[in-house]
Structure formats: structure tokens, C-alpha cells
Design brief:
alpha+beta; oxidoreductase; NADH Oxidase; EC 1.-.-.-; NADP; 36% helix; 184 residues; NAD; globular
Length: 184
């Protein structure tokens, strides 16, 4: 088994993250991995924001705007503080006659998945989160998104505090089948 396959088969979303988060050359390499996502017509339909330190509290303020009750707003305000870094993945759609918006969104999503693998390979952990705040106009505006942009997700990033137990592996026969069906 190759190192890459091993990394993919052992990757997990890690919700308990502490400092340090990657920086400098390691963080740059992680973004280089994201940029290798399939990208029809080389549109580069993505961009990323790195949120750390005081920015996490400000992001919590944006999240709190999506809550309806004071208790919910308080919970949302604390969410970004679960990790020392959050990478906001943004799909930045480029008009193109042969590349629909959905393909551009998928390209951003693949890049985020590559980042999760690169983080794990570099000894860090990550958790991809969305939720209502990823689609809320006040969060989009607060992060400076343009009209043609949308949030693909928030990658919570840091050093794994307590690794989760391994998840049971799915049998491929539960989600893979031949087409056309053999009995046709």
C-alpha cells in the first residue's frame, strides 16, 4: 500500500484541536496541495482566508449574527475558538461557457479535501464544517465575499488533542455496483 492510500484510509475528522497550527512553509505546501485539485479550463475558482488569533473572535461575532436566541448566539460565538486556525474555503465562480458553477464548486471542495490529507500528512488535524453560517448573507458580507462567491466550508485546523477511535470501514459492496446491471 502506498503512503498516499494509507493516509486516505486512515484520515479522520478531528474535532479536538489545539495549538500549534501549521505556519510558514508547511502552510504554503498545504495550499499548494489544494491548488492541484481538478480544475476544468484552469479557472482557479477558489480562494482561501486564514483566520487566527483575534480573527477567530471576530469570526465568532459573524457566526453569532446567524443565531436566533441569545443562547444560540453565544454558542455560535464560541465555535471558532475550537481550533487555533480556520481556513475558509471560498468558491469564486468564473463565467465560462463550458464550465458550469457546480464544477467550480466541486473543484473547490476537492481542494479542501486535499488540504485535509496534507494537514494529516504534516502531523496536524482538521475538521471540515459548514452549517447555516456558511450560507448566511451576513457571514458572507463580513468575510468580504463578492456576489459571485460562496463559502465551501470552514476547515478547523490544529494539532490533534485526543485522536478519535478508528471508524469502522464500509464494505465497498454497500455503495459500489456495476452498470449496466448484470441481469439486464
Amino acid at each position: 500500500m502506498t503512503d498516499l492510500i494509507h493516509a486516505i484510509l486512515n484520515r479522520s475528522s478531528e474535532p479536538r484541536l489545539d495549538a500549534p497550527a501549521p505556519d510558514g512553509e508547511v502552510l504554503d505546501r498545504i495550499f499548494q496541495c489544494a491548488a492541484r485539485a481538478p480544475d476544468h479550463a484552469l479557472l482557479r475558482p477558489w480562494r482561501y482566508l486564514v483566520v487566527e488569533g483575534e480573527g477567530l473572535e471576530r469570526l465568532g461575532g459573524l457566526f453569532a449574527q446567524t443565531g436566533e436566541s441569545e443562547a444560540e448566539r453565544d454558542k455560535l460565538r464560541k465555535m471558532p475558538l475550537r481550533a487555533p486556525m480556520i481556513i475558509v474555503g471560498i468558491t469564486s465562480v468564473k463565467p465560462h461557457p463550458k464550465v458550469p458553477e457546480i464544477e467550480q464548486s466541486m473543484s473547490t471542495a476537492v481542494g479542501m479535501g486535499y488540504m485535509l490529507l496534507a494537514l494529516e500528512s504534516a502531523g496536524f488535524g482538521g475538521m471540515w464544517r459548514t452549517g447555516p453560517m456558511a450560507y448566511h448573507p451576513s457571514v458572507e458580507a463580513g468575510l468580504g465575499l463578492a456576489e459571485h462567491e460562496s463559502i465551501a466550508g470552514f476547515l478547523y485546523v490544529g494539532t490533534v488533542k485526543n485522536p478519535k477511535p478508528d471508524l469502522p470501514r464500509l464494505e465497498t459492496s454497500h455503495f459500489v455496483s456495476a452498470w449496466p446491471p448484470v441481469d439486464c
